[in-house]
Amino acid sequence: MRAHLLQQLRRQAEVSGDGRLAELHDELASYTYPGVDLNVAHVPGPGDILVPLRIAAGDRVLSMFTTIATFGTPVDVTVSELAIETFWPSDEETAAVLRG
Length: 100
Description:
Blueprint: H1 2-16, H2 19-30, E1 51-57, E2 60-70, H3 77-80, E3 83-89, H4 92-99
Antiparallel strand pairs: 1-2, 2-3
Helix pairs in contact: 1-2
């Protein structure tokens, strides 16, 4: 998940030319956690459609999946910066919590 989010942030920084996004990417990429190799992760490729997401919420674990749609053409810079990310529940318990 970390690699996926960093990849999206890097893409947004490159497409927009926004230095603040590039700085945010570099800061987040520098974070480390003791005993965890954060560089060992699956980076979604063009054939990947869904990314799983699990969030601890109190004594529950909410299970969702996310997908990102990006648009763009070589001549339309505004549209090439557009990305729509959606989150969907992966199970009935998560769906019920999100509806409530």
